[in-house]
Amino acid sequence: MSALSGKVQTVLGLVDPDLLGRTMTHEHLTMSFEFNYTPPAPGDEAVAENPFQMQHMHWLRQNPYSCRENLLLQQEAKTLGDELLAFKKAGGGTIVENTTTGIDRDLPALRQLAKDTGIHIIAGAGFYVDCTHTEATRRMSVEKLTDIIVGEVLHGADGTDVRCGVIGEIGTGWPITESETKVLRATAHAQAQLGCPVIIHPGRNPAAPTEVVRILQEAGGDISKTVMSHLDRTLFDEGELLEFANLGSYLEYDLFGVEVLNYPFNLEVDMPSDSQRVKALAFLVKEGYEDKLLMAHDIHTKHRLTKFGGHGYAHILKNIVPKMLTRGISQHQVDKILIDNPKRWLTFK
Ligand SMILES: CCC(=O)NCCS(=O)(=O)O
Asked: For a divalent metal cation 2, which residues are the binding ones (predicted)?
């Protein structure tokens, strides 16, 4: 048994799992998504240059990745305390901050935000998707990658003494690349050593979540302590969803607040609305998966902050939970999804 066993590791140190309260298991407070910039449609360039005005808000919500400035969430780190205090006022207790190496993780900023607001913040270890890997990362062996990830949890990351409390979000695309496969194997090895929670960003293909689970399992990972993120844009067929759910990971619906007509990273996908996300959760509850469900907003751009007219980190607590209660999900089941399941997942074995 390690010193971490039975505890949750926040950026301010170890805490008793009972202290977490309502938890968003997939958010970003400071990061860069610039590598995903998608040029605006011809004629929209001027709007994209000057997006944060009332008359441009609809365009920005529909085209969030076509404005460079919108992708620089890290510029807001100093003012993010107010957003977190709104989350706290709505009854929130904990944020899992999934920013990993490749998208500008800022651990000192996370520690400061936790101190300023009293919100428990849990930082993520490991690496994002292949196109953010450096050449040095690509050349590393699985053993070296494992050492880095274990070190980020046990000693601190990015040259700081801030320790990560989860591995992930570990980024994978579709098809999964060689470098991503090595990182997945390292993740499984580190998890086997540490007994820690893992969270995965799957590629945008219905086959991706199952393939990730296969790789993790083969390398000795603990699927019962692993979260599959972004199911709302990945698995639509109910049969396929149940087949995946049967593999035993946590099932995360984490794009609450995103309502877009065209999803630029996969134009085949019809991004669901929040009502459809609630429907999917109600379906999984009815099928007996209430102990596996998790929810979040995955805020990763500026326009989703309340400061820019967005829904902020309190949207689920203020707007989605009341809707869930009208759609066959009980308060007891809501509490499982927002409190008990995150607590169980985040507690080191
Ligand atoms: C870093 C944030 C992130 O990866 N979000 C996922 C966006 S999407 O793949 O679901 O569009």
From this structure: 169, 201, 230
